Amino acid sequence: MLQAFETLSELTAAFPDEQTCVEHFRSIRWAHGAFCPYCGGIEVYNFSDGRTHKCKDCRQRFSIKVGTIFADTKLPLRQWFIAIWLITSHKKGIASAQLARDLGVTQKTAWFMLHRLRYAAKVKSFNMPLGGIVEVDETFVGGLAKNRHIGKRGKGRGTGGIGSGKTPVVGAVERGGEVVARSTNSVDSATLKSFVRDHVSHQAKLLVTDQWVGYRGLDAEYVHAVINHSKGEYVRDDAHTNTIEGFWSLLKRQIYGIHHWVSPKHLDQYVGEATWRYNRREASEGGRVNSMLAATDGKRLRYNDLIAK
């Protein structure tokens, strides 16, 4: 049976020990019936310790954590539950240094925990093609080129060269609905049009972009409205990009205000975290925790893979 909780104090009261966490996680993972993580068999025996199970078909013995991001973790599930609460409840996420202090673990452990959770959310995320009124825009993440060593400034790219030395991120949001975003290597026409075709339904009521040349030609496939920011135009009837720009504001407050700096290698994971939270903005606090727990099934992220070049 699922426990109900809407505050952090209620969460810690609902899960006073490891067994209550195991039972809650088992209720979520086996919501549609028990199964073996090794062979998929549905005839599972339960041992008296309340934590161990055995498959009738393959005879493997396992815990509910096998086959999830929690497999082989040395940390109790209660600490993972608290970490999930913090990353899903705080609109801008939480820094690994702060999580380390809150949980009493090392910063390295906290950083790895957060990346496992981001990886799980990204692997399990699925976005239907966006419809209705859809706004598409790009932004750039990273320090100013003028503040870098001259050998690391790179060439200007993006609108007016403002992306020099930064990593582009492209996103689309259905007004009143979900957002899809990812980091990319370029904001050229081929990249942007491919992104739009992948994520925006051709039956969308209206596609809104700014005047960047990468979006030219989309009016042959979509009902396409262009807002010319360079001429001081920001709203024209239903056409504006204020919603996606609001999401960019949340993303940058997360990156610059909480993490201060994010490497291009891991940027997409942080974008995925912000996207996951935005798309569950109407959910309850406990609902977001349970949603993240439901996404933990599958291959876990290994530390050596995370730090590999």
Describe the structure.
The longest helix is centred in the middle third of the chain and has 18 residues, at 107-124. This protein has a domain at 133-278: Ribonuclease H-like superfamily/Ribonuclease H (Nucleotidyltransferase, domain 5, 2-Layer Sandwich), CATH 3.30.420.10. It is an alpha/beta fold and 309 residues long. It has helices at residues 8-14, 18-29, 77-89, 96-103, 107-124, 189-199, 242-259, 267-278, 285-294, 303-307, and strands spanning 44-46, 52-55, 61-63, 133-141, 167-174, 179-183, 206-210, 224-227.
Q: How large a portion of the residues is in β-strands, by DSSP E?
A: 5-15%
Give the overall silhouette: elongated
Q: List SSEs in N-to-C order.
A: HHEEEHHHEEEHEEHHHH
**Terminal CA distance:** 43 Å
> Largest sheet, if any?
5 strands, mixed
Query: What is the name of the CATH topology of one domain?
Result: Nucleotidyltransferase, domain 5
* Strands, total number: 8
CATH architecture assignment name of one domain: 2-Layer Sandwich
Strand arrangement across the biggest beta sheet: 6-5-4-7-8
Number of distinct helices = 10
Explain briefly what this protein structure is:
The chain has 309 residues and is α/β, with parallel strands linked by helices.
Descriptive key words:
309 residues, alpha/beta, Nucleotidyltransferase, domain 5, 3-stranded antiparallel sheet, 8 strands, elongated
Give the SSE layout:
Elements lengths: L7 H7 L3 H12 L14 E3 L5 E4 L5 E3 L13 H13 L6 H8 L3 H18 L8 E9 L25 E8 L4 E5 L5 H11 L6 E5 L13 E4 L14 H18 L7 H12 L6 H10 L8 H5 L2
Parallel strand pairs: 4-7, 7-8
Antiparallel strand pairs: 1-2, 2-3, 4-5, 5-6
Helix pairs in contact: 3-9, 4-5, 5-8, 7-8
